[in-house]
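[scheduler] slot 2 assigned
[scheduler] job type: sequence-to-structure, two independent chains
[scheduler] chain ordering preserved from manifest
[runner] begin chain α
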Amino acid sequence: MSLMLLISAGLFMRSLQHAQAADPGFSTRNGLLASVDLLTAGYDAARGRAFFETLLARVRQHPGVEAATLTNRMPLGFGGTSDLSAKIDGYTPAPNEEITLYYARVGSEYLKTMGIALVAGRDFTDRDTPERSDVVIVNETAVRRYFAGRDPIGGRIRLGGRPVEIVGVARDGKYSNIAEAPRPFMYLPMQQWFRPDSILVVKTAGAPTAIVPAVREALRSIDANIPLFDIRTIEDHLAIASFVQRMVASLLGAFGLLALVLATVGLYGVIAGIVSQRTPEIGMRVALGASHRDIVALILKQGLGMTGLGVAIGLVGALAITRLFKTLLVGVSTTDAVSFIGTTLLLVAVTLLATYLPARRAASVDPLAALRYE
């Protein structure tokens, strides 16, 4: 049990390291996130569009702001994902194939603000309004899957019967969780696909929290009744993204260490009891010429036999149970050699020490006293 828990903890600790170093698909780290909800204030779509357009314009004017945009959800958040059924002009689906594209509603200059590389085409601008043709930006995976051998720019996608034109191709990223595989994704301009609740994303030149008063003032100057809430930095948001790996690694690590202590104490107690029972035998062996090394080797052999059996069972159990973690691991396989070998060596080393202490005491037995005990 100790080995199974320690190996599982080792996998998640290595997964946490990879998760923290993983590329989420956007490069902006120095920035601020703040939520705005117009629904409770009774804004309709027309007034809401005007509100967000004015808010972005005023926030961008601040000298500490490098870029600003809106989105209905941040990548790697806990809010889930949204998807739409689609038909792609020029692509013939396989029998029974249903095309589903995940998406996010975003504001103008979203790719620039987030630091998402533009592979082809353009980013959204303030000119992508409801009065103009509907547009969309897709990611590289969508292009590879549905536009093989074709130029996606200018291509058309029908979303619920609503045609949109592809104006850009963005680099792939992580959208729901850091461990996910690449999948087709698209960005829809918020002015054309309006919703009243949005996240304001501000890329800053200095400390992100330093511009909070300026953002509040910009919001207050438009409508003093609209609150700014859930304020956090992008770094804080990324720390939340690896929360699952950190939590599981901590819990399994704590239980694993506790199990290791219990296994060590238990093995020590068993070996000490065996040594006590075999004291006459050990005394006889010493009297017949057995050396200190011979006695230590005798006891170690018995202790390591128990350890070896426990390790064998633990490894089989670990191979079985770690398969359940496959979808939660980042950059680490369920049979990661470092975790399995390193943890096994640690357990063997600790149990070797637990066995050696009573073995050393057995080797120092006075043969005369042992024989009198007999």
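[runner] end chain α
[runner] begin chain β
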Amino acid sequence: MIPFELAEPTSLSAAVELLDPDDETVRPLAGGTALMLMMKAGVFRPQKLVSLRKIESRYSGVFPTKDGLRIGAMTTLNAIERSQDVRKLTPLVTRTMRTLSNVRVRNVATVGGALAHGDPHMDLPPVLMALGAEITIVSPGGQRCLAVEDLFSGYYETVLEKNELIAEVNIPSQGFRKGWYSKVTTGSADDWPALGIAAVLDVVGDEIRSSRIVATAATDKATRLKSAEAVLNGKSINERLLLEAGDAALQDCELIADVRGSVPYKRELARVYLRRTIQAALRQSEAHS
């Protein structure tokens, strides 16, 4: 790696001021799990990194709120996985974390860094989207809130400006909603998926009152499957409805080929695993336990 300057501000506001919106060689550094690999490979050569490790402690923890959870952007994935508050209020997140990358990465990677990186293969963004999570973004001009589903704009791309930082993630309590995340991979359980599908369902009796379904990995960004949701909402589940929802899902996502599979292969995966994910979610009775 080439030499670079390392700044270590002690506040989030100071970190934001150090970012230069006109200089792409100045980047924030959170966990660094992706950024360091890019630097070692010569893909990215920074002039300055702005470390976030010494900013206020309020951005490194899980905090219950009246509506759910507030998670500081510098909270490690391991801390989220082990949090009893996360397990109680959003059990779907805890279950997903167990196969998100490996333990070494989870010990270092942060939730804010993972979201800002915009990698469509990540398991957590579709789950947060399905739960209706929002992020708080800080810039020199103040702060704004944004739904996680509106964060991603393309392959490894987000709507964040170069002088904006994610400060917090706010997740509504899962409550009695049922949820599941299906990770389809031919490698180890913590490998990158060929397809990921997250579903969160509000179910009364045998009727799905509302649903939020998100696909990732087979697409260039985590994508809400609104056509599939429209098929399911207000209906009682049966096999024909699930097949219809699987076909509808393909209207909302532009599938991409990569080393993990062709477009036709991923199209069939999406049909099959949307059905399996809905069925698995409906079997869950632990959402409020």
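[runner] end chain β
[qc] chain β: The longest strand covers residues 195-204.
[scheduler] slot 2 released
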